[in-house]
Amino acid sequence: MKHNLSQGREIVAIPGPSIIPDRVLSAMHRAMPDIYEGDLTTVIDSVWAGLPEVVQTSGRVFVPIGNGHAAWEMALSNTLSRGDHVLVLNCGRFAAIWAEMAEFNGLNVEVMEAEEGFANEPSALEERLRADVNHEIAAVLTVHVDTATSVRNDVPALRKAIDAAGHPALFMVDCIASMGCERFEMDAWGIDVTIAASQKGMMTPPGLGLVWANEKALAAHESADLRTRYWDWTYRSEDGPYYLRFCGTPPVSHLFGLAEALAMMVEEGWEARWERHRVLADGVRAAVDAWSTPGGIGFIAQREDQRSDSVTSVTTGSIDAVELRRLCRQQMGVTLGLGIGSDESASFRIGHMGHVNAPAILGVLGSIETALTSMGAPLGSSGVQAATAALSQ
Ligand SMILES: *Cc1c(COP(=O)(O)O)cnc(C)c1O
To answer: What is the pLDDT of residues 230-250, one digit of tens each?
Structure first.
């Protein structure tokens, strides 16, 4: 590419942190308020009132100041005891990192790997749990969407597998990549602990974890011995002085931002939001499909019905993905996600989560196609044309 076309508003198309709406940025841009009364208490109340609806639960919500890893640690430390056996279902990278944390923190960890490029098999889970006749497995941990492979697990089917085995393990699901983008019904699907974070589909800067717990998880909490004071759910009582929710000073700016993001989600409506993500993701998938060639562009997630609506991971075969990302960023102002878990020169990721609309997605796809064309990459056909056809339906 001869010309530099990057001056203008940059588009971040990495799978988190994602594009933050101006409304959220404006809400955060304010002087520090009193933390004992006034606007902040109103905003905290509105966030606590709004968060259960995001996952459709009547359970309780906890908001650790931290990233997704903080939410992982809060979930483990509040519900489990040293030496407990946990079964981790991995379908890419992220559940495996959670497993490493669990092991470090004193749990006895067993990882079940999905076949590469596929979701975890409910039947394999059922079989493993049936074999655990003494119910030694205390918890099953998994992700809704793995952000490395962009594979989506069938969470209700995994729940059915646990029930079919008649197993009492807690079921904890990391929805960090999918929350606010894809349908998730915590109570109806039988999830005991749900984990998310502020910076992906939730349209708020990184810095807040989100953890929802149902009655069963709160009961397990009573006897959990991994509990520590900072993360402790009991200590973070909603009934105590309000600052106890955060075990110290509240994350003021983030709370104003999150309250605004929640208001935007409610205004859009959950069904409309999930549908928007699905249709835009269909556009991305149509483009990748059109570009694909043997030995060139292709999907990392092998099954159509297991491809996430919030992120798409792409293999590039013989095409240099490092150069592709460089051209997109430096010449066109679009930042693509680094491929992780595999060779970074042979894969990349497109985030399509949260505050994204048709021009954002078409701009990203058009920029990718422009870069690929300038690199002389082998392409099946025009991805942009395929995406516009998909979106126009
Ligand atoms: C991003 C992500 C994480 C890690 O979140 P951090 O905020 O970086 O700690 C964990 N799990 C999934 C599925 C993710 O997408």
So the answer is: 999 998 876 665 667 999 899
